[in-house]
Design a protein that fits this description.
- Belongs to the carbohydrate kinase PfkB family.
- The protein is of the alpha/beta class and about 325 residues long.
- The protein contains ten helices and 14 strands.
- The strands form three sheets. It has an eight-stranded mixed beta sheet, sandwiched between helices. A four-stranded mixed beta sheet has the order 3-2-7-8.
- α1 packs across α8, α6 packs across α7 and α9 packs across α10.
- The chain is globular, with a radius of gyration of 19 Å.
- The termini are far apart.
Length: about 325
């Protein structure tokens, strides 16, 4: 492994079983033939780490897997793609996090998940020496990480900032309620916050993104972005703000992992010293690759391909914005 480290991702690592196409009628039948049943890596931290690595970032993934075939599959897959998994814990007697993704013909997805193993994920798995090397520390999957939610990540974030490492947070759906109180301690030590629109509504109690910005401004974030799905994104550094439409695509294979590839693209762009607007454009381009490919990872190409894509297609986004 390289001594250099750009991004440390900590959070969800899943074995995704992709089934498509699935219709409501199919669910009422005893046996239904489908085009695809495929096993792929997934989970927010995995998706961000793998897509950032594809974009040329030296990336480490801190998570947990079971000592089972699904865990072995994930470890092998990550190692082959040069993700640093030295702090990936293997828990004997535990089941690797698994998700069955049911994909509708229009690309919409529904998940059946088992995430109990993530109750054994600890911030202490991140070696302090890594913080001396890293440039970004990314928490991926807040609200599904027992020991990292509700302020549990704060000591690690504080230590990271002492070393000059920027901190990033994205979220998953909160099954317990109390959205803002549960994440508020973490946000006070977060530089970049990139929730989905639905999650941001629950966190702030607002439906307008500018009102969301006003709720979150006192936390001292450097960047707040809202992923708006097919509508694109809203971004602000609390000095400037803008809406950026999504890149139009000819076909959608699956929207699974699009938000995570946006996060990975934004993180990579920031480390490439792009400004806020160009970083959002880069992130949106990365997400457009993901929705045209099956699964949550594997669709994002190398950084130069993304740059070429932007040069060729940015006028489509900017024309929509006008």
């Amino acid at each position: 492994m390289s001594d250099e480290m750009d991004i440390i991702c900590i959070g969800l690592l899943m074995c995704d079983i992709i089934v498509k196409p699935v219709t409501e009628k199919a669910l009422s039948l005893d046996a239904t033939p489908v085009d695809t049943i495929q096993m792929l890596p997934g989970g927010d931290a995995c998706n961000v780490a793998c897509n950032a690595a594809a974009l040329g970032m030296e990336t480490a993934l801190v998570s947990v897997v079971g000592d089972d075939p699904n865990g072995a599959f994930l470890r092998r897959w990550l190692d082959e793609r040069h993700i640093d998994i030295r702090s990936l814990a293997v828990r004997g007697g535990q089941t690797t996090g698994t998700s069955i993704a049911l994909i509708e013909p229009n690309g919409e997805r529904h998940f059946l998940t088992n995430t109990e193993i993530f109750d054994t994920l600890y911030a202490e798995q991140v070696p302090e020496e890594w913080l001396r090397q890293a440039r970004l520390l990314s928490l991926n999957g807040h609200y599904r990480l027992k020991n990292l939610d509700d302020g549990g990540i704060v000591p690690l974030f504080q230590k990271a900032r002492q070393y000059g490492v920027r901190t990033v947070v994205d979220t998953v759906w909160n099954r317990k309620g109390e959205w803002l109180p549960r994440i508020a301690p973490t946000l006070r030590h977060t530089d970049i916050f990139l929730p989905s629109y639905q999650e941001a509504v629950q966190i702030t109690g607002e439906t307008d993104v500018r009102a969301m910005r006003n709720v979150l401004k006192p936390f001292g974030l450097s960047v707040f972005g809202v992923k708006l799905g097919e509508k694109g994104c809203y971004m602000t550094d609390f000095k400037e703000e803008f809406f950026l439409p999504a890149f139009p695509v000819e076909s959608i294979a699956s929207t699974t992992g699009a938000g995570d590839s946006f996060v990975a693209g934004f993180e990579a762009a920031q480390l490439l010293s792009l400004d806020l607007y160009e970083s959002a454009l880069f992130a949106s381009a990365a997400a457009s690759y993901t929705i045209q490919a099956p699964g949550a990872v594997g669709g994002v190409p190398d950084v130069e391909s993304v740059r070429q894509y932007i040069r060729k297609n940015r006028h489509l986004v900017e024309n929509i914005a006008q």
